[in-house]
UniProtKB/TrEMBL annotation:
Transmembrane segments: none annotated. Residues 445-587 form the Cytochrome c domain. It is found in: Cell envelope. Keywords: Heme, Iron, Metal-binding, Oxidoreductase, Peroxidase, Signal. It comes from Mucilaginibacter auburnensis. Its main location: other. InterPro entries: Cyt_c-like_dom, Cyt_c-like_dom_sf, Cytochrome_c_Peroxidase/MauG, Di-haem_cyt_c_peroxidsae, Imelysin_sf. GO terms for molecular function: cytochrome-c peroxidase activity; electron transfer activity; heme binding; metal ion binding. GO terms for cellular component: cell envelope. This is Cytochrome c peroxidase. The keyword Signal applies.
Amino acid sequence: MFKKTIPFLLFSFVLVLSYCTLRKADVKTSVKEHLQKSVDTLDQQAAHLLNSANKGEAELRNAFLSTRVAYKKLEWFSEYYAPTTSKELNGAPLPEIEIEETKVFEPSGLQVIEEYVYPYNPATKADLLREIASFRSSLKRLRMILNDTEFTEAHILDACKLEVFRVIGLGISGFDTPLSKTGIEESAVALAAVANVLKLFGENEQLQEQINAAIKYIGKSPDFDRFNRAEFITQYADPISEGILAWQNQLGIQPLNTEMALRNKAATLFDKDAFNINHFVNTAEAMPDAKKIALGKALFFDPVISGATRSCSHCHQPQLAFTDGMAKSAALAEGRFVKRNSPTLMYAGLQDAQFYDMRAKTLEGQATDVIANKDEMHASVEEAARRLEGNSQYFKQFKAAFSTMDNTIRPRYVMIALASYVRSLAPFNSRFDQYMRGNKSKLTANEVNGFNLFMGKAKCGTCHFTPLFNGTAPPTFANTEAEVLGVPADPRAKHPVVDPDEGRSFHSKIEEIKYAFKTPTLRNIALTAPYMHNGAFKTLEEVMDFYEKGGGAGIGIKLDNQTLATDKLNLTEQEKKDIIAFLKALTDE
């Protein structure tokens, strides 16, 4: 009996191996063929859009919306495999700034076209035609990238999961549809596209039912302002991303070897350990671990770094979410203040730029800058390293934390240790986080409504992206954004004027980013008053009023480069209260 079983088992194994080989070949071929048809359809829709520019506004808008729908059907591919070209097709309608090269690149794509269509002005027809032609040129590049792409099953599934995250973080917030407000309906299109790709892997009735349920839910409530985003995410979108990961494991498809900002095993965007902090670290030596974090924490609270004048905690106090509660932080000289206030260090490790003006790309660079600043510490990392070397206890800690260290504490070790501690300040344990992970008792009805307003009608989520609620855009979290809000020097003045701090342009002298400041995290915002880089607003109520009016433009400050929408939000007093209630639920416990 045993001898007869062996040939049968071998035959079965060969059958399974053959099936897996065929499935992989079929999936990769089918995905490429499916995408090629989608690109053809998008090109045809773009051609129709071009012709519609000669017709009425209604037909033009219909053609535009059809083009957007066609794009959404292949967004999962373009954003994942061709991110640069994807920017050309559907990037933000703002100039892209290359600070290092002092270059400004004009925006292009569907979001730019939208501004010509809503509303349509026949006088701008030539500009509209030029943008559509540019879009079709970018589409040719996407086609070439598609033809050259070698697909793997793991990458395809990863791209599908990230598209679900993109729907959560960008789609339902209306990030790329601010004027047409079709983000909710388009999210259904994006999910349907994911479903079509997943079908190529075989039958998974449960996963397909989950996606169909999400699409059906959107169909029942497509109204942008009233859409229940909290319910959609927790009851529909999260189960889809969880289902994709579970099915990948069921199919025996190994996860990718490399991890990006999100861990490959993250089932949802709100998993406690979803973020891979090492992705935001520049060198292997700087990867944080328990020993480096402990050392960095000791240094953070010890004035030894500055030569006994002050410690990092002087301006970054834990009980205030690592701020200091001042409009502008106190300088070393008595009675004097630095240019700006102390931003929170919570979640600072999950962004690619530091300081309000984004002049430092790393936390190590930030530490060096602060230590050297004559108004803040007026010291040097080199001197700090020499002082620490003479301290036997610190010497032992450095030796334990850095395996390559000889008998010298290098300045970079000091910076890495401090940065490692700051990178550890991302607990993700607010009541909001607990709610999103299933504990529905953690938020009140008003707080849930506040989140829905934040992500929808109030437009907050188009700059403060969930789940970090800073300017680092999901799902790749590759770039941290800055905005020109028109923050006043004194909002209580009879005729407010813009704060003279030039922000990002102070160092670059690029006019387009004059008065632009990094979009900070809103996590723990209840503890970080006063608000804005200059502490102009004392309360969250004042901040809400500023945004309600349309930023600086709404209080009489004219800035041609204001990036914040200048139209009023038309929020009721209760809606403002609900948003503030939600913001307070972002305080870590």
